[in-house]
Amino acid sequence: MTRIHDMGGRFGDGAVTPESEADPVFEKDWHARALAITLACGSLGKWNLDISRHSRERLTPKDYTRFSYYEKWMAALTNLLVENDVLTPQELADGRGTAGSTLADRKLKPDAVAAALAKGGPADRPSDIAALFKPGDIVRTRAAGNMQTSGGHTRLPVYAAGATGRVVRYHGTHILPDSNAHGHGEAAEPLYAVAFQAQDLWQHPEHPKDEIILDLWQSYLDGTT
Q1: Which strands form 221-223's sheet, in the order they lie side by side?
Q2: Are the C-beta atoms of 168 and 181 separated by less than 8 Å?
Q3: How high is the pLDDT of residue 21?
Q4: 197-201: long-range contacts at Cβ-Cβ below 8 A with a sequence spacing of 24 or more?
Q5: If DSSP codes are grouped into helix, strand and coil, which group holds residue 169?
Q6: In 3D, which of 39, 41, 42, 79 has the Cα closest to residue 59?
Q7: Using an 8 Å Cβ cutoff, are 61 and 4 in contact?
Q8: How far is 206 from 9, CA to CA, in rounded Å?
Q9: Who contacts 166 (Cβ-Cβ below 8 Å, separation ≥6)?
Q10: Please, are residues 190 and 173 in contact by the beta-carbon 8 Å criterion?
Q11: Does 1 score more than 60 pLDDT?
């Protein structure tokens, strides 16, 4: 089962219009604040990146289609704050806290922002799972989404489900989002860059021989004979 966010290759959503270098980084001032508060709240340690991504995917289709990009971020963050007992619904409604927070010592202070952003969030982890594929191998993606949680988060887009491609690079072992987004552990496994021809993904691509390269985890893939 897919969700409303999985839009790649879908008809009816209009053309993608790239931004130019002359465009501002943030169209509106509050967009920058939305990004800042999302990063700051992430430092509280109550959720991980994959949980944060999945919280946006869990927005209702009605909200997802009517919200702008950063409105999605703020709606998802609001849900995370309440679900993880950082805020109560009443505090959210009042616009202020009612008592001191036990998380106050974890807040991201202004002088720590640059170092936190420079550090990033590396997702490579050691794993005992051996790599089954190598560059040049032909593989097929599985047809299903998250195999652990029905309707759960996955990085396998629906347009590439059941498609055949070619491994072009092995990235080492990385956190599996399908597990990490649901609190089931990092479950690191081999990650590959896999190339697909446009004609193998869509019925009427403008350039059939174009290659689309996706980073896909080993559990998303089967070998072909």
Answers
A1: 211-217, 189-197, 164-174, 138-141, 221-223
A2: no
A3: 87
A4: 200/163, 200/164, 200/165, 201/9, 201/159, 201/160, 201/163
A5: strand
A6: 79
A7: yes
A8: 12
A9: 136, 137, 138, 139, 194, 195, 196
A10: yes
A11: no
Model's pTM, two decimal places?
0.89
List of residues 6+ apart from 187 with CB closer than 8 A: 175, 176, 178, 179, 180
Structure tokens at 97: 């806290």
Three-state DSSP state, 32: helix
Residue percentage of the chain with pLDDT more than 70: 99
> Are the beta carbons of 157 and 8 closer than 8 angstroms?
yes
Contacts of 67 (CB under 8 A, 6+ apart): 59, 75
Closest Cα to residue 134, out of 190, 184, 174, 70?
190
CA distance 47 to 153: 14
In angstroms, the CA 161 to CA 201 distance is 9
Structure tokens at 69: 């990009």
Hey, is 24 helix, strand or coil?
coil
How far is C-alpha 93 from the geometric centre of its chain's CA atoms? 29
Q: Which residue has the tokens 């496994």?
A: 189
Whole-angstrom distance, CA of residue 215 vs CA of residue 194: 6
